[in-house]
Amino acid sequence: MLRFLGLVxxxxxxxxxxxxxxxxxxxxxxxxxxxxxxxxxxxxxxxxLNGWNVSANAFFNKYLGVSADFSGNYGSPRIxxxxxxxxxxxxxxxxxxxxxxxxxxxxxPFGHVLFGGAHINASGFGLSGSDNSFSWAMGGGVDAExxxxxxxxxxxVDWLRTQFADSTQSNxxxxxxxxxxx
Length: 182
Hints:
mainly beta, Porin, two-stranded antiparallel ribbon
């Protein structure tokens, strides 16, 4: 474990040498598409939802900042246990630290750990209901600058944990879109 941490630290120190003369934004605003695979558990198959993801990041320096992340996902997955389709909407509101690692003037990887809540609405099979949950996400992505004030988020991948209906879900979340840099 210490070797791994030493290797990661060494790589980050070397990569930071390339960014010494670069200027970086203090606020990044992201908006884009989001795909989420909701994992319900070992005995029930998961399902896929599509939607939107927006975030605002404020940076204290060229590396460290805070993030506010909001998303909404929608779909009508078929739940095999019920034998019918269910209409589902989920929303997350997450906040936490973000670290970016500018490796070139055009490419900026980042990582974050976010904490907050989630809300789900579901209806089908003659039933409807909603639930709220503590939620957290861990992941990161890569932004590619196309203009001094605009970047394309090539991808953001997160492990999103929720806890609906007294059960824990480990969800996969992927976002792509546009970043406006100020």
